[in-house]
Amino acid sequence: MVRLKHRYIALEVVMSKAFLKRNMKPKVITGAIRMHLNNLYGELGSASIYPNLSVRYLNAHTNTIILRVRRRFAEILLTVLPFVTATESTEFKNTDHKIFFRTLYVSGTIRSAQKFLIRNKTLTQSGCRANILALVSVGELFLHPSPKL
Amino acid sequence: MDNLKNTEKNDFPVADSKSSTSLKGTTQATDASDKLPESNVKSEIKSADEKKESSHLKKWKKRMRFQPKNVTLDPEKHEYYKDLLPDPKDDTFELPRAVPVAEYVEEAKKEVKAMLAAVKQHSGSKTALQTLPKHMRRRAASHNVKRLPIRLRELASQQMIPPSESSKTGEKVCRRKRRKKLALQNEYAKRAGNQGWLETHLWHSKRFHMTENSDKHYQHWSHRVSIYPNDKSFRACYRAVAKHCLIQDISYFHCVELTGSQINVKNMFKNMIQQHEHSSVFDDGVLSGKIEAEVMMCDLTCDKVICPVRILWQPKLEDNQDTISKHVVWCWIHPAPYKEATKVLEQLSTTHGVSTSDRTGDFNRFRFTGPKSSVTLMSTLQLIKVGEDLTSQNSAEHLSAKLSSWINENKDEVKKQQLDFSLTMLECHRCNFHKTHKQLTTRVCHGAVMSVLVNDPRLTLPLQKTKPTLKSTLSQEPSLLDASEVDDHEKSLEELPLSPKWKSEILEEVALSRLPDHVTSTRKNEAKFTLGEEKTKKLDSLATPVPVLLIRRSGIASHLKKPGFEGVAGGTEVTEGRSVHAGPPEDFGSGWDLILPKKWGTAFWIPFVYHRARAGGIRESEHSHLECKTPFFPRDFPDTGAGRKWWEAEMETNLKRHYSKPPAKRVNFSVMATPFPFSPDWDHIFLPLDGERESSLNVGSSPPLKQPVESKSELVLTENQNFATSFSTVTRKRSATSSDHDVIPSKKSKDSDITAMAVLRNKEKVATLRRLLSAGDFASAISLLESLTPPTLVCVQISPINRGTPSARAMLCAPSSDDFVELRREFEDLNGEGLKSCTGPVEPKHWDPYRKERKLATEQAKKRRKQKKKDEHAPLQSTNQKPHKFNVLPIRPIIGFVTSGDFLFSYASGGGVGFIAVDHLVSLLREQVTNNWLMQEFAKSAKPPIALMRLIDSTQYRFVSLHPTS
C-alpha cells in the first residue's frame, strides 16, 4: 500500500523570555520556521514544507517538541532549523522574540521519536545529565541577560 | 499542522459572526426585507461548517487518542514572579537565586510517563499478531501465545480470552446440540402446529418440493403437501405406477363425518348429488359400507359442480332398515374446495337433521398405485395374532384396553377379515402377474372396502430396502398356500368390513398406543440376539394391533373401458405384445387406499418405503391421470370453483413470468394471434363464430399484416357499431370491455358466465357418445350432443394424429375446408411419407395493434425522463399496461382449450385433456361427415372429429383427434 512517509524531528526549544515560554503554542513554532524558510528557500521551499509541517507534541515545561514533515523535505527543514533565531514578528504585536532549536533526534515514526525522548529524559533523571540540562533550561536567562544584570 | 488548522478553524466562526453582523447592519440599512433569507443562508453555511469541523475534529481526536497531549504553561501559576518585579510591565527581572530543578524533573517525569504510555499503547483494531511484520507471523501463533515475541504475549493472551461473559445469556446453543434428535423433535412439534404439517411432512420435506403457503395454487389447502420428489423425474414414478408400486400420502384430503339416520343422510345426498349419479351412491354395497362411492358433489340447486367426493358408510350388523339408529358416513373432500363444500354440507345437514364434524386430523390416508401394490401391502402389513388373549399374554401397558376387548369380542370376525385380506391381495396380485389368472378380472370392484387388524409394521422393517415378492411373503404364512388353493372368496366378499375404527374412543387409544421409535428399534435389536421362542416372545411383547381400512381403486380410466367400448385411438385389445402407442392398460393406476389411525403415519410410511414403494407427490397423480387422458381435479375442472381458482392462480403466475422479461424478450402474442395466452377464456368459445367475437375483443380479428386501425376515434366508432349489433343478438351476458387493451372483465359478469357454464359429466352419456363415435354412427352422436340443453363444454381427450405435444392453455381451433384438402394432398402424396408428412397449416403473422401505442409510450417515457431531470416534482405516470388478453384473433376460430397436456409415456406421443364447446363439436362433426375421404380413408389413421391445435407461442397448427371423456 502506498502511504505518505514522514520524518519526525525531536527538538528542544531555547527561548529568550519567560513571556514566550508562557505563550508557546504550535503556531508560534511553525510561524518561526516559516519565516526563516521563506528567507532561505524562498516561496518554493516554504510552499513545499509549510503545508505539511505539523507540531505533533509540545511541552512547554520541558521545552520539547516533536515536528512532523514529509520525508522528501526533511533535509530542507533540518537545514533551516539552525537558522531560526526569532519568532514571527506578526505573532506578538510586531515584536521579535529570540528563539532557537536544538535538534535532538530524527526518526521515521513517532513511536521511535517518543522512545528516544524516554531514553533522553530517563537519562536525565538518572542523574548524569540532569545538572547540565537543568542549567540549559535556566540558560535562557543567561543568553539574554537583562540590562539590570 | 493539523492542530494549527484546527485552531485556525476554531477562529473562523468568530470572525464569521463578526462579519455577518456587520453585513447585517448594512443590509438593514439598505433593504429590510432581504434580511431574513440572507441570515438564514448564513446560518446554514455556518452549521454545515461546524458539522464538517466536528467530524474532522472527531477523526483527529480518534487518531490522537493515545498520543501524549501538548503541555502548555498555566499563566496564573507561572506568573508568580511578576509580583516580584518592580514594574509589572517589564518582562525582565533579576536572576533568581535558585534553579527550580525539582519542578523541572517533576514535569519531565510526567512527560516520560506519557511517552511510555504512548509507546506501549497497542494501536487501534489490530490484533497482537497483526502488529508483527509479515515475515514474523506464524499461523500457530493464533492459538499458542508462546509463538509470539515476548513483548506481545501479554497483549495476545488478553485478546485470546473469548468475548466477555456478559453475552452468555443470549448465547446460541451450538449447532450440534440444536440438531440432536430430541431438540429437533421439540422444535418440529412447535412448528407443525401452525403450518399444517402432515405426519410424514418431515420425511417429505427432505426429499420433495413442497407446496408453499404463498403459492396461490395451494393457498387454500391448509396443509403443506409434497409436489414432486427431488431425486428422479416423473419417468421413474411412471414406471412405478405402470409396473411397480407408487405410494402417496394423501392425508391432506379432508374427512367430514356425517351422523344421522340412514334416510336423512340419503335425503341429504339426494340434494347434493346429480340425478344420474344417484344409482352409484344409493347402491346396496355402498349403503352397507362395503364399497366407497366416488361422486361429484353439487351445490344446493344441483347445477353447479363443486368437487368429487368419496363417500364411505359405516357398516352395520343389524340389517333392519330402521330409521332411528344412527349411521355414520365419511366424506373425503379435496382441500381446495373444502370451504365451499362444507358450506353446502352444513346447510343441508341443518335441514335434514344430520350432524357434521371434521375428522381430518384423525386419519392418515396413503394411496398405493401400481400392480405390485397388493404384494407390497401384503408383505408390509403383518397380521396380528388373534388366537391368544393379547392383554394377559403381553402385560404390555401400551396396548389399548378398549381395542383388545373389542378384539376379544369379535375374534371370529377378525380372523375372517385377515384371511379375506390375504386372499384378496393374493388374487389381485395373481390377476396382474400370473399367466393363468391374467385373463381374469378381479372380483374386487372399484371402491371395495376391507378392514384388517395389523401389527406394527416397524417390527418387520427390513435392514435394507428389499423388494417384496409373493414367494417370500407366502413363505412366512404357509397356511395361506393351502388356503389359496381353496376358492372360498365368494363367501368372504359378503363379509362386512367391520372395524373398530368407527369408534372414536378406540381410535384415540390406538393413537396413544404407538410406541416411540427408539423403544421398538432397541427392543427389536435386543431380540436379534435371542433365539427361538424367546425371540418371538420378545417381539410379541411389542406387538400392537392397529385397525386399518383398505379401499380398492381400479384403474383411473377403467370406467371408460368397460367391455363393449373401444379404447382410445390406436388402442388394441391384445394384452400380449402391446404396441407402444396403445396407451395405458386398463388397470393403469389401480391400487389401494390405506386409511390409518392418526399418529401412525410414519410408523407405516417408512416400512413401505423400505419395501421399495416409490414415494410420489401431487405431480404424480396429476400425471398419471394425464397418462390415461382423464381430467384431474382441480386443474381440469374449469366449471368448479376450485378449478376457477386454480386457473386464476395460473393466470397470475403466467402473467408474472411473462412480464418479468424485458419487452424485447417477450413473445408477442399479438403477432402470434394468441388472444388468451395466460389462461383459457371459456366465455369466448361460447360466442358464435361471426362478428360478436370481434366485438368482445374490441379490435377484431386483424387479417394478416393488415394496417392497424389508424386513429383512436375510428377505433371507438367501430367499437360502438359492434356493440350495437352485439346487443341485439346476444342473449347471454357478455363482459363488454370499454378501454382499449385493458381487458379485465368485471367480476360480476365473470361469475354469471361461470354459472352458465356446464361440463358434460354424465358418465353414461359420455360412454354412449364414445361408443357412437368409435362405431362411426355420427348422426346419432350429433343428435345426442344437440339434446344437451344448456350450452355446455365437453371434456375431450386430445391425441395428435402425428406430431405435436399439447400443453396447457393451447387452443383448439376449427379447421377450414381448405385445410382438409391440403391434408389429403399431403397424405396421398406419393413422394411423401403418408401421415408423417402431414404437417398442418400455419397461422400467418398478424399486425400488432399495440405497436404504435407502445412506440409512443416509450417516446413519452423518454421525454418524461428528460423532464424529470429538469423538474423533480413531476408526477409519475404508470405507463406499464399489462394486458391479460390480446385483441388479435387467429384466422381459424378458437373452439376450445387444452387444460393439461404433455408427452405421454404410455402413448409414446403427446396427449392431453381439453374442453370444447358442444356447438362447435357438433359443427365439426357435421362438416366432417360430409367429407367422404376423411370418413373412409383417413379414419384408419385418426378418427373424426378432427380439430386443429395450436400452442400459445407457436404459429404451427397440428391436427388432433378428439374423444369425449369424463
UniProtKB/TrEMBL annotation, chain B:
It comes from the Eukaryota. It is found in: Nucleus. Residues 1-58, 834-882 are annotated as: Disordered. InterPro entries: Pop1, POP1_C, Pop1_N, POPLD_dom. The keyword Nucleus applies. GO terms for cellular component: nucleolar ribonuclease P complex; ribonuclease MRP complex. Residues 1-11, 32-56, 843-861 have a biased composition (Basic and acidic residues). Keywords: Nucleus, tRNA processing. Residues 591-682 form the POPLD domain. Transmembrane segments: none annotated. The keyword Nucleus applies. Residues 793-962 form the POP1 C-terminal domain. Residues 17-31 have a biased composition (Polar residues). One of its GO terms (biological process) is tRNA 5'-leader removal. Residues 172-260 form the Pop1 N-terminal domain. Pfam families: POP1_C, POP1_N, POPLD. This is Ribonucleases P/MRP protein subunit POP1. The lineage of its organism: Eukaryota, Metazoa, Chordata, Tunicata, Ascidiacea.
